[in-house]
Q: What sequence folds into this?
């Protein structure tokens, strides 16, 4: 009996060896790889721009632009293009949105070489830049560039702007606007107002400009 079982087992083993391995089920699905982290030293941002100030007649002024699509006033920020650094995106957006008025001053090289890192708001990078004063009406008279989205420009007294932000949750600039025929209070974009409020990413450096 034992001998018969041994012969039977040997026969089964030979049959499996000749037929190959038993049929297998579907191959397991490989795990989804985690997204690759950016290489060390690479800034994984989505947008960048410039908050511009100028000194004129003894006052510090902030430049705001009216977004033609939203009807709100804001600084000059836009989305990154493939391969751009934060300085390149900020310089390009500011140049486009101000119609090239500071094309030679606010370059990517100047921003990157200023020694001042951009202020971080989530995936957005904002450079605080002092520029030479140019009349707002002069900006509006320049030709649109390919991606210009601002229709009007306004210089606002920075001290008054910050005081207005502090006095109201509405996020608006004072009506005393040195702009191209703009009247009334300037309704700010929510993100711009948030950056200017106490605790906002731009508030501390701006406070130092108007002690």
A:
């Amino acid at each position: 009996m034992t001998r018969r079982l041994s012969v039977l087992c040997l026969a089964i083993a030979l049959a499996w060896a000749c037929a190959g391995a038993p049929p297998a089920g579907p191959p397991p699905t490989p795990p989804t790889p985690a997204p690759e982290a950016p290489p060390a030293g690479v800034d994984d941002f989505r947008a960048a721009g410039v908050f511009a100030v100028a000194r004129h007649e003894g006052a510090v002024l902030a430049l705001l632009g009216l977004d033609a699509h939203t009807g709100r006033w804001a600084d000059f920020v836009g989305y990154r293009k493939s391969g751009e650094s934060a300085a390149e995106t900020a310089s390009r957006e500011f140049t486009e949105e101000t119609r090239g008025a500071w094309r030679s001053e606010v370059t990517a090289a100047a921003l990157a070489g200023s020694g001042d890192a951009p202020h971080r708001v989530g995936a957005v990078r904002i450079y605080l830049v002092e520029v030479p004063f140019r009349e707002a009406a002069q900006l509006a008279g320049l030709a649109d560039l390919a991606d210009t989205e601002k229709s009007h420009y306004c210089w606002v007294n920075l001290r008054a702007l910050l005081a207005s932000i502090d006095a109201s949750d509405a996020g608006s600039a004072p009506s005393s606007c040195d702009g191209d025929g703009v009247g009334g209070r300037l309704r700010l974009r929510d993100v711009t107002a948030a950056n200017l409020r106490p605790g906002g990413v731009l508030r501390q450096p701006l406070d130092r400009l108007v002690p």
